[in-house]
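Researcher: Please translate sequence to structure tokens.
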Amino acid sequence: MINPHARADDGSPTPAPHWTPAPPAQWGPATTGPRTPERRRRVSRKGVIVVASAVAAGATLVAVLGLVWPGFLNRKVFDTAALQQGVLSVLRDDYQLDADLVACPPGRAVTVGSSFSCSAEVAGVPKTITVTVTSSDGRFEVGRPR
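Model: Translation complete:
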């Protein structure tokens, strides 16, 4: 053992070693007293039934509205490729025009009375064609190119 008060050979005192106590343990319980068991909260059967019934009623309402109320979930839209082919057919067959490259906007809703524009090349010149929806089953009317 080293004497902290001893002197070195030159006569000066030897410094005492510096140490600090070890930190407290990082594991184990935070308290050392007796532990009280945690109480688990029981879920009542009545509460579960009420919540399940509310969820089922909401799902049923969404399903009924989606199938019955038009447009809620069942929204009819034009098939863009078929629409463009139909417009091209009318321009060539009914109007007897040299039409090419018809482009209509995608996702147009089938709503009776609504109108939208398509573009096409007629004899190499870009033109605008107005399309009007005439029935809920997807029939439409093609206006003359402008």
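Researcher: Any highlights?
Model: The two ends are 109 Å apart (CA to CA).
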